């Protein structure tokens, strides 16, 4: 069983879509290459990088499609109608939601 800190670390490796506010070429990371970054053109980056860029006001994070009130309500409705557990939208839905909504 993973600790909360380990889950957060694993979650930060997930890729999420951002809309950059800066121009930048490719960025070579240990985990792979991201970019190039062009203002207004969506691109996928690891969550940790997206949070860092947002903190410095260099991008806007595009929330996952499942992180809307309508979609969450739909999942809740399906779960209340079905005696079986429903598939969650992401393996890290709690951690990801917390990162995006609090930081």
Strand order of the largest sheet: 4-1-5
Total beta-strand segments: 5
Q: Would you tell me the structural class of the helices and strands?
A: alpha+beta
Radius of gyration, whole Å: 16 Å
Name the beta content range. Answer: 15-25%
What value does the average pLDDT take? 91
Gross morphology: globular
What is the number of helices? Answer: 4
How far apart the termini lie comes to: 26 Å
Descriptive overview:
The chain is of the alpha+beta class and 103 residues long. Helix content is 39%, strand content 18%. The protein has a 3-stranded antiparallel beta sheet with strand order 4-1-5. A hairpin with a 2-residue loop joins strand 2 and strand 3. The protein starts with a helix and ends with a helix. 12% of the residues are buried.
Summed up, what is this model?
This protein is α+β, with helices and mostly antiparallel strands. It contains 4 helices and 5 strands. It has a 3-stranded antiparallel beta sheet with strand order 4-1-5.
Key attributes of the depicted protein:
3-stranded antiparallel sheet; alpha+beta; 18% strand; single chain; 4 helices; 39% helix; two-stranded antiparallel sheet; 103 residues
């Amino acid at each position: 069983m993973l600790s909360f800190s380990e889950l957060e670390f694993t979650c930060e490796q997930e890729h999420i879509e951002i809309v950059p506010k800066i121009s930048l070429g490719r960025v070579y990371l240990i985990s792979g290459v991201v970019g190039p970054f062009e203002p207004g053109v969506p691109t996928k980056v690891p969550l940790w990088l997206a949070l860092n860029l947002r903190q410095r006001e260099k991008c806007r994070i595009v929330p996952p499609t499942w992180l809307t009130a309508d979609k969450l309500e739909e999942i809740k409705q399906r779960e209340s109608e079905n005696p079986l557990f429903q598939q969650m939208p992401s393996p890290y839905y709690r951690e990801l939601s917390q990162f995006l909504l609090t930081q």
